[in-house]
Write a structure and sequence with these properties.
globular; alpha+beta; four-stranded mixed beta sheet; 52% helix; 4 strands
Length: 210
């Protein structure tokens, strides 16, 4: 049975293949090649992947990611498409689903939305609900750097307080768009922001996410 993580994995691989290694992405300073290397490192080099979150390990992670980026691009895409190596925890369906669903969704949109004349996806309601469930749990961590109070409001009215404070900005949109916003893709997310003009501007300029 296909899972959300597997579907998003295959979509990401297809997008990377289609745009080519030199295509821009929403990840600052990364072309498609660097993004692909990041995904491969995270999944296949646990000795370095900790540097994604831990500053003490960042130099090593950057070095290994650069080494991976120097590999043939087709090989990187193939490694993403075929999934984790044997004995990897990511090979367990439940862990793959928990760890990779949002990761692959966001990176697929990093590729898609950096291209000219991109068009938004229509996400099915089940997947939207999955994204919202994950966002509810992670919102405070993702939005911890918000300079203002922040409420994320789904189009159906469901809300989560992502950051306490004043003044308050309310960001409204579909779950997928709110996910992108909370992961630091504010300019690419199709959402409505309601609040004090200066507070909205400060929020847009703040790096959210990890």
């Amino acid at each position: 049975m296909s899972t959300h993580a597997k579907r998003e994995r295959l979509l990401l691989a297809d997008l990377l293949e289609a745009v080519g290694p030199e295509a821009p992405t929403l990840c600052h300073g990364w072309r498609a090649r660097e993004l692909a290397a990041h995904v491969v490192m995270r999944e296949r080099r646990p000795d370095a992947a900790g540097g994604i979150l831990l500053s003490a390990l960042r130099e090593r992670a950057e070095r290994i990611q650069a080494e991976l980026a120097a590999k043939p691009y087709d090989e990187l895409v193939h490694l993403i498409r075929t999934g984790p190596p044997r004995m990897s925890l990511y090979g367990i369906k439940q862990i793959d689903e928990a760890a990779n669903t949002v990761e692959f969704f966001v990176h697929a949109e990093d590729v898609r939305r950096a291209q000219p004349e991109w068009t938004p996806r229509t996400l099915d309601r089940v997947f939207e609900n999955v994204l919202w469930s994950r966002l509810e749990k992670a919102a405070r961590l993702l939005c911890r750097k918000s300079p203002v109070g922040l409420v994320l409001r789904r189009s159906n009215g469901q809300t989560v307080v992502a950051h306490k404070g004043t003044p308050v900005v309310t960001v409204t949109g579909e779950a997928g768009e709110l996910t992108l916003f909370a992961f630091g893709r504010q300019e690419a997310a199709r959402v409505d922001l309601d609040g004090d003009k200066d507070a909205v501007a400060r929020l847009r300029d703040t790096k959210l996410g990890f």
